Amino acid sequence: MSNLFENKRFFCYQIKEDLKSVIQNNQGQIVEKYQDDFDYCIISEERSKNISVRVYYKCVDNGIPILKPSFLTSSVKLNSLDIANDHKNTFPSFAHQWIRKGTLRYLNYRDPKPSTKIFGFDFDSTLIMTRSGAPRSLTTDDWQIYNGNVIGRLKQLLEEGWKLVIFTNQGGVDRRGYEWEVSVHDRIGQFLDFVNLPIQVVSTCARDKFRKPSPFLFGFFEKYLNGKLSINAQESAYVGDAAGREGDYVTTDYKFARNIGFQFYVPEQLFGISDPPSLLTKQKLEQRPRKEQKEEEKEKTILERNKNGFYKYQIGKTSMRSFDPMTIKGNLRKSKTKYAAYTKKELSAGIKQEIIVLVGCPSCGKTTFYNNYFKDLNYTLLNHNFDDNSLTKCLDNNGSIVIESDKCLTIRKRRQFIEIAKSKKIPIRAFYFKATVELANHLNWYRVWTQDSIYIPSIIYKITTVEKPQKSEGFKQIKTISFRPIFENEKLESLFYLWTEELLIKLQK
Ligand SMILES: [Mg+2]
To answer: Quick one: signal sequence residues (predicted)?
Structure first.
């Protein structure tokens, strides 16, 4: 250990008492190899004592120097001569205690007090902007405050009795791992140190049921992070840049506010127009794409404020860019029944033994359809990559079968089932699910919310080909199935009518 740090400068920082356990849990683990030309810095609790330390090293990523945390922690004797005081506070926010709860991370900065009224915020492009001009922060330090009004405005909200909470989606953590997690959360920590106000942060790190615009994120917050106080949604508000405006990357923030019943604002309404990126270095300017500040935006730079302090900013046209579940409600109302379930008559062909193939895009409700209508009739479901023996075995026992598999989606692939049906003289029908990809994506998220399942990545819709079944293929009958929901209870029903995240890929029309 001592060799490793010989002739290196040690930077020393105070850490909070409660971070000690994190450090000690990792004690002794070495999962990265060191190279000699790195600069090391050490976060320590005290000088001149045997203490546990966390080591960070400087390295170069895409030509940009960054600090990376190592996984090495150990006990080391620090000598006060090794400490470079001039570097104190370089990155103090590593000292913040982030609490991990499953895929969520949260942090209480300066002891935020529970309140029945919440002012919630998105983080990226709402409270901060990048310094590089890139749409997303490229490094831990690639951030600057949104503009000079932020701190004053946050202070004012606190004085008026709101609790300030950052709700941020950091799904990249799931994909990119621990280093990314440290980088993202340290950036938030740096921001908190900068504004130095009592703020709570909840960060979602996976594409699971807590990701905005999910109401479960808010549910978790209300249950565990607000001193058991219920939130008054009418008095609460949420601010975010993802509002589905032209040029907005996504709609998540607007949907989140709608789903939890909060008043919604875009950052421009609260803080005015953001400062343009102050590009980090000349080198970066050449390397990275610069976000052009449009002429019209420059004109809008000075905005008027109303008497409540909000800026008179026109949000303009927004679009949810996803399936509107209320259209289903509209259809149900028209049909004057609570649930527009299919009738036996509509689905049955009056056949003793048969094969049914379900054809439709991923997550459009095929398995649920089977469970609702064919499970009780003793049809066997063969799904995913079932083995072909199970198919013939079941047919030889006079059983009926529903096949829900990728193998049913194209004419070429499903030909095998038609051949088998022919050879055994058993009728075969195709049920074609007319659901749009947008509806399927809504059902995909609905399943994540209600069954704790994993979101099927949206790329699946792009790579999956669905060919509408034709009678000429040899089917006895083709039934077109429009989506009709059946809900087990009112809670599941109300969740269905909330907004879900749109597809994040572009489909060829
Ligand atoms: Mg944002």
So the answer is: none
Q: Output the CA–CA distances (angstroms, integers) from residue 49 to 11, 45, 75, 79, 324, in the order listed.
A: 15, 9, 9, 8, 61
Domain holding 157: CATH number? 3.40.50.1000
Per-residue pLDDT tens digits for 231-284: 999 999 999 999 999 989 899 999 999 999 999 999 999 999 988 887 755 445
Q: How far is CA 14 from CA 44, 69, 204, 265, 402, in A?
A: 6, 17, 28, 38, 64
Cα angle 172-448-357, degrees, rounded to a multiple of 5? 120
What is the CA(123)–ligand 1 centre distance, in A? 6
pTM over 0.85: no
Based on the domain organization, do 87 and 113 belong to the same domain?
no
Per-residue pLDDT tens digits for 16-48 = 232 322 233 233 332 232 233 333 344 443 433
371, pLDDT greater than 60: yes
CA–CA separation, 429 and 418 (whole Å): 9
**Cis bond leading into 213, ω under 30°?**
yes
Asked whether residue 234 is assigned to any structural domain, the reply reads yes
Report how far ligand 1's centroid is from the alpha carbon of 240 (Å).
Answer: 6
Domain with 460, as residue range(s), is 327-496
CA of 243 to the centre of ligand 1 (A): 9
